[in-house]
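Have a close read of this protein, sequence plus C-alpha coordinates, and explain what the C-alpha coordinates say about the fold. Thanks in advance:
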Amino acid sequence: MRRGESTGGATVRKERRGNAVAALCGALMLVAGLVMMAGGVEAGLLVTLFGGTTSIVFAVAAIRMRM
Protein backbone atom coordinates (compact mmCIF):
# COMPACT_ATOMS: atom_id res chain seq x y z
CA MET A 1 0.00 0.00 0.00
CA ARG A 2 2.90 2.35 0.59
CA ARG A 3 3.84 2.18 -3.08
CA GLY A 4 0.33 3.29 -3.99
CA GLU A 5 0.61 6.26 -1.65
CA SER A 6 4.02 7.27 -3.02
CA THR A 7 2.66 7.51 -6.58
CA GLY A 8 0.87 10.74 -5.62
CA GLY A 9 4.22 12.39 -4.95
CA ALA A 10 5.59 10.98 -8.19
CA THR A 11 2.80 12.57 -10.25
CA VAL A 12 3.47 15.94 -8.60
CA ARG A 13 7.15 15.63 -9.51
CA LYS A 14 6.22 14.80 -13.10
CA GLU A 15 3.99 17.89 -13.28
CA ARG A 16 6.81 20.07 -11.96
CA ARG A 17 9.18 18.56 -14.52
CA GLY A 18 6.62 19.26 -17.23
CA ASN A 19 6.40 22.89 -16.12
CA ALA A 20 10.20 23.15 -16.25
CA VAL A 21 10.17 21.68 -19.76
CA ALA A 22 7.52 24.20 -20.82
CA ALA A 23 9.64 27.03 -19.41
CA LEU A 24 12.67 25.68 -21.29
CA CYS A 25 10.66 25.59 -24.52
CA GLY A 26 9.59 29.20 -23.94
CA ALA A 27 13.19 30.24 -23.39
CA LEU A 28 14.24 28.40 -26.57
CA MET A 29 11.58 30.26 -28.56
CA LEU A 30 12.76 33.60 -27.14
CA VAL A 31 16.34 32.80 -28.16
CA ALA A 32 15.08 31.72 -31.57
CA GLY A 33 13.37 35.07 -32.05
CA LEU A 34 16.51 36.97 -31.06
CA VAL A 35 18.68 34.92 -33.43
CA MET A 36 16.16 35.52 -36.22
CA MET A 37 16.39 39.26 -35.71
CA ALA A 38 20.19 39.21 -35.50
CA GLY A 39 21.13 36.58 -38.09
CA GLY A 40 18.70 37.13 -40.93
CA VAL A 41 16.29 34.78 -42.68
CA GLU A 42 18.46 31.67 -43.06
CA ALA A 43 19.52 31.56 -39.41
CA GLY A 44 15.92 32.24 -38.38
CA LEU A 45 14.65 29.31 -40.44
CA LEU A 46 17.27 26.98 -38.94
CA VAL A 47 16.42 28.05 -35.39
CA THR A 48 12.67 27.76 -35.92
CA LEU A 49 13.09 24.25 -37.33
CA PHE A 50 15.31 23.29 -34.39
CA GLY A 51 12.94 24.87 -31.85
CA GLY A 52 9.91 23.21 -33.42
CA THR A 53 11.47 19.75 -33.41
CA THR A 54 12.70 20.09 -29.81
CA SER A 55 9.29 21.29 -28.60
CA ILE A 56 7.62 18.33 -30.33
CA VAL A 57 10.11 15.94 -28.70
CA PHE A 58 9.44 17.52 -25.29
CA ALA A 59 5.68 17.27 -25.82
CA VAL A 60 5.93 13.57 -26.73
CA ALA A 61 8.14 12.95 -23.69
CA ALA A 62 5.63 14.72 -21.43
CA ILE A 63 2.76 12.64 -22.83
CA ARG A 64 4.72 9.42 -22.27
CA MET A 65 5.54 10.43 -18.69
CA ARG A 66 1.85 11.04 -17.91
CA MET A 67 0.90 7.60 -19.28
